[in-house]
Amino acid sequence: MELSDKDLSRLCGHSLFREVPRELLRGVLESCGEGVREYAPGERICCPEDPCRKAGLVLSGKATVTTADVTRTVLLRVLAPGSLFGVANLFSDEPFVSLIRADGVCRCVIFAESAIARLLDESRDFRTRYIGFLSDRIRFLNRKIGYLTAGSAERRLALYLASLGPGEVRLTDSITSLSDLLNLGRASLYRAFDRLCADGYLIRNGRNLTIPDPAAMLNAYQ
Fold first, then answer.
1. Residue 3's closest CA among 34, 24, 48?
2. Rg (Cα) of the chain, in Å, rounded?
3. pLDDT 10s digits, 65-98
4. Full-model pTM
5. DSSP readout, 109-154?
6. Tell me, what DSSP letter sits at residue 35?
7. What percentage of the chain's residues is helix, strand, coil (to nearest 5)?
8. Cα–Cα distance for residue pair 210/203, rounded to 1 Å
9. CA-to-CA distance for 108 and 62, rounded, in angstroms?
10. What is the pLDDT of residue 33?
């Protein structure tokens, strides 16, 4: 499927590709990329058995990222339009570590590894942004490891809230993305919010939060 002008504009709007010249991006995709692909509900987009390393960006629809273990499937992430996937898997001999499936009809731009390599060679800005993207992923994973080993739901939420700083802050993560980050179900996350509020360590008004004393909050949930 050919890359339309609308698809190209959406791709150029992503922070990773924002400063890449449109014609360079189009040329790379036409010569090295796999182009736009539409996946049927439940169809595999990436899996450990893929013979070729690739990355992609969701144009429309959604996809789910799960563990590849067939005996116990765990949802790791939901990919919405604008989400990148597979970037950290490039330039490695290791197989893809998870399974990505279309959740309903899903359209994606697929980049072969050679396409990303050419962009890294020809665009200094892309190279800088690519390194920054990988650094952000490392920080995210380090934070998630910290939350996963923190213990109770209240402790995990307290650690996250303490990282936002004292005083009035605004919650920028959605409940879904926050529950994914903390590895908590939505119900458990809501109960943790209620507990912190009831104990006086958090004042919550929708997405607007007040954290009077982050240190005392962390002390309370060990």
1. 34
2. 20
3. 887 776 666 777 788 899 999 888 888 887 787 8
4. 0.68
5. EEEEHHHHHHHHHH-HHHHHHHHHHHHHHHHHHHHHHHHHTS-SHH
6. E
7. 40, 25, 35
8. 5
9. 10
10. 65
Tokens encoding 56: 């992609």
Q: For the segment 140-171, what is each residue's pLDDT rounded down to a tens digit?
A: 777 777 766 778 889 888 888 887 777 788 88
Q: What DSSP assignment string belongs to 57-86? A: EEEEEEEEEEES-TTS--EEEEEPTT-EES
Least Cα distance to 11 among 137, 124, 132, 119 occurs for: 119
Query: Which residue reads 């790379």 in tokens?
Result: 28
Q: CA-to-CA distance for 214 and 206, rounded, in angstroms?
A: 19
Q: Are 126 and 25 in contact (CB under 8 A)?
A: no
